[in-house]
Amino acid sequence: MTKTWFITGTSTGLGRLLVERLLARGDRVVATVRQPDVMRTLTEKYANQLHVWTLDVTDTQAINTVVTEAFQRVGHIDIVVSNAGYALFGAAEEASDAQVERQIATNLIGSIQLIRAVLPYLRAQGGGRIVQLSSEGGQIAYPNFSLYHASKWGIEGFVESLAQEVAPFGIDFLIVEPGPTGTNFVQGLDRAQIMPCYEDTPAGEVRRGVASGDFAIKGDAAKTVDAMITAADRLHPPLRLALGSTAYTSISNALTQRLRLLEAQKEVAFSADSLN
């Protein structure tokens, strides 16, 4: 059955590939970009299937306007994909105030406001699905990505809570958590100004590793997008979907360690209860 999708951040990377895959199989897509010219070849090829809007997700008023216009234009939208985002790369102290604010405004507030904007329309049509692009970085943390992790951990907490709030309206969620994948992610990093004092720290080690290309990128972009589509098509998708062996292993190790630490604190935790 043909579906209609609303997807943000479709200029490049997984967002662009997702649009291409969906159009090729016959679905309709509302795609948002900051520079509409990048979609020209697709709009010419899929004139009857693809609708493009210009949108910067840091502009809440623009989000509300585009969402309203999109639902008015295409009617029922089955799946909303909150994909727009990027990573701020640098130790927390190295980042400028403007960089911090832009990271949170794009990845966290932008995603929250997009989801809030579509909820009334999804409720009115009797339900729908929201796919939130996170990453393994929504469950684990590397040095030099602290602000990026703050945005991803934040949006995952928001979605997990919201999913419980709107389940009675037939609205459900899928959080996608890819590991390192063959996209333009590294090229799109917003790099903080380097402070020499961090050179011989874990942050500096990660910086050197990224610069040298030593980090293994095992994830295949096409296979990642195919897995996303398959999960989004399911009647009852999981709340979270880790994609790539690196993501699976990293998240599994992090959760195992976190549970081990929690269990070791059981006696202390219970001691904080009021006495009966």
Automatic annotation (TrEMBL):
Keywords: Oxidoreductase. The keyword Oxidoreductase applies. Gene3D superfamilies: NAD(P)-binding Rossmann-like Domain (3.40.50.720). It comes from the Bacteria. InterPro entries: NAD(P)-bd_dom_sf, SDR_fam, SDR_oxidoreductase. It holds the Pfam family adh_short. Signal peptide: none annotated. Belongs to the short-chain dehydrogenases/reductases (SDR) family. PANTHER family: SHORT CHAIN DEHYDROGENASE, SHORT-CHAIN DEHYDROGENASE_REDUCTASE FAMILY PROTEIN. This is SDR family oxidoreductase.
